[in-house]
Amino acid sequence: MEELNTKCLIIGSGPAGYTAAIYSARANMNPILFEGIQPGGQLTITSVVENFPGYPEGKPGAEIMEDMKNQALRFGADIRGGEIISLDLSKRPFLCKSDDNLTIIADTVIIATGATAKWLGLPSEAIFNGYGVSTCATCDGFFYKNKTVAVIGGGDTAAEDALYLSKLCNKVYLVHRRDQLRASKIMQDRVLNAPNIEMVWNHVPIEILGTVQGFSKNVTGIQLKHTQNAQEKTLTVDGVFVAIGHSPNIDLVKGQLAIDNENYIITEPGTSKTNIAGVFAAGDVQDRNYKQAITAAASGCRAAIDAERFLQH
Asked: Which residue is catalytic, options 8, 136, 169, 301?
């Protein structure tokens, strides 16, 4: 079994992971980064990203991630495919194993495994993912300016997405399976008083409707079913935003790092430090509020600097 030693092991390859690799490589930490099962993270399924600084004309998320990866490689980061399948944080240096039978001994570890958006599980949802179906209103809302969209969900995220989209779209349907929102009272008041947000109570989506012609795909509507009488109806919409939450990818560290009641890794305020010295968390795996590519990148920078300073003591 091959054994590798590194000052910094980075687990995850979204904006947080790649940025951590850039900073740690420039600090001569000789980082090793494992990309995981989705190299580039959630951004790779975003067709065009227009709110990431440095890309004034917008660019596909996958290409932005490739740019970040290449920048990290330029500074000497050792970027590898595959996953870390076990991680022992009980003592330093930390002992890790990869799915290709490598043993990695790391002085510090940056957890940047991200979060996975929860989906409805409809086959049609997968067909139109990135072509009218999205889990990020702030990422993709601009494309629906002056159009009609539906938001699915009833918590704070759904309420925030609906309010954000109401400033861009002519009409926003907020579809919730119950007869009252789970969102905080202030968010409920804002949603219910927004003139162009229409509540669709007691309904669940059963189909995303649209057209597929070659590589061209367009959402045209959403089919709903009433949760009490099972009657169905169709809303004509140009886009559907699924806002039923995210699941932080914490399987690797569960039971070792402190997590909150929503399974996000807890970090010391203003830092990337976890409850274990030498272990840092960056990106969506510890961010329950913003979940943006730019904030993930910033936290990756912070984690690399925190790791560098830790090694200096």
From this structure: 136
Residue 158, pLDDT score: 93
Q: Which is the catalytic residue, given 140, 156, 284, 306?
A: 140
The verdict on 256 and 109 lying in the same domain is yes
pTM: 0.80
One domain for residues 112 and 133: no
Q: Is the Cβ–Cβ distance between 208 and 133 less than 8 Å?
A: yes
**163: Cβ contacts below 8 Å, ≥ 6 apart:** 187, 190, 191, 194, 197
* Nearest of 259, 291, 75 to residue 299 by alpha carbon: 291
Catalytic residue among 96, 139, 169, 301: 139
Distance CA 305, CA 23 (A): 7
User: Quick check: is 301 catalytic?
Assistant: no
Q: How far is CA 150 from CA 67, 166, 240, 249, in A?
A: 33, 11, 5, 27
pLDDT for 1 beyond 70? no
pLDDT at 138: 84
Give the pLDDT band (50/70/90) at residue 47.
Answer: low
Beta bridge partners of 210: 219
- Domain extent, residue 30, equals 2-116+246-312
| Integer Cα distance of 200 and 179 in angstroms | 9
* Residue 169 confidence (pLDDT): 98
Q: Are residues 257 and 235 in the same domain?
A: no
pLDDT digits (tens, 9 = 90+) for 95-122: 999 999 999 999 999 999 999 888 999 9
How much is the CA Rg of the chain, to the nearest whole Å?
A: 21
